[in-house]
Amino acid sequence: MNAEQKIATHFAHTEAELTITEFGDGVINDTFLVYYTPVGSETKVKFILQKINKNVFPEPSKVMQNLRVLLDFITSKNLAENAKLVFPEIISTHENIDYHIDENGDYWRAISFIEGSQSFNTVSNIEQARLAGECLGRFHNLVHDLPLKRIYDTLPGFHITPTYVQAFRKSLVVLSKRKSSAMLDHGIEFANKRLNGCAVLQEAINDKLVITRVIHGDPKLNNFLFNQKGDKVLSLIDLDTITPGLVHYDIADCLRSLCNRSGEDSNDINDVSFDLDICAATLGAWMGEARNFMTLQDYQFIYPAVRLLPLELGLRFLTDYLGRNKYFKIEYPEQNLERAIVQFKLVYDIEQKEDEIQDIISQCL
Fold first, then answer.
1. Are 216 and 70 in contact (CB under 8 A)?
2. How many Cα neighbours within 13 Å face the side chain of 54?
3. Domain Aminoglycoside phosphotransferase, which positions (predicted)?
4. Core vs surface per residue 130-141: b (16+ CB within 10 A) or e
5. Domains in the chain, please, with CATH?
6. 277: pLDDT confidence band, cut at 50, 70 and 90?
7. Which residue of 210, 240, 281, 282 shows the fewest CB atoms closer than 10 Å?
């Protein structure tokens, strides 16, 4: 029995043999698919097993408390059924605890597997974009009145862009220890020219121009689960990052993910662009749901958020690269640098298309 199988036995309420395989391509938690066939049955039972990354989530127990509060809130009001969404259920240990701590102090949790689902890394058609935007809007509608005091901030500084700016500036001191390259020099120059405008959303919060609500925190495309036909969204997953924040972070990050059809790890920087048709479909569907709680003042900060979120992620990739790749999982040493350049190219294209994006926002009101 390997280590993962041993951990899985704490959640599997069966004597049957467990089969475990690595699952998904997430860059934060270690994720496995566990399945078994109960004695006397021919139907396989599946669930997801995850080790929560303590480098990213220093207080995993609070991550699980947030997840429990969110799911109980949605369940108590029959909200998921009304929104036509399915959410994973927490599978408790034999001791009726929502997580297991192993001998190394690592936190493991199990959640139900959503059958008949699939995810995508890039959008294949306009309808998929519309469905994702609609799903995100429905999620925001589900949780817009969830009291903030019930949700822990498990990622202090998350999406507080000035914090990432400070970290980036500090990382520049290691440049003397890094071999310079044209790509690295370009990335640093591009970022430095745009650092002064990175506080726009934080200043809006400080000036009480926008409202803080419960948000998803990471609504990239592969966190939307589609059915096997790809014509319906079943769920929005990866709920570890739920936190108090601006819905602007969510919709902008969603657009960042969907509108760059070449993906975060594009092999050709020339393919990276911000697709206006995908933007219009996604934003229109989201705003169709979000107008139930958005204020007119909220809408003024959508474009600044759309521009800011890829810049923020680019800064995070570049900072991680300069800090020896300790945060994001990589397959080769230069990957985070290349990821940063992809995001910066996306920022540049967004800046060139500002008038068109602003027109789309106005048309969706």
1. no
2. 9
3. 19-264
4. bbbbbbbbbbbb
5. 3-57+88-113 (3.30.200), 126-364 (3.90.1200.10)
6. very high
7. 210
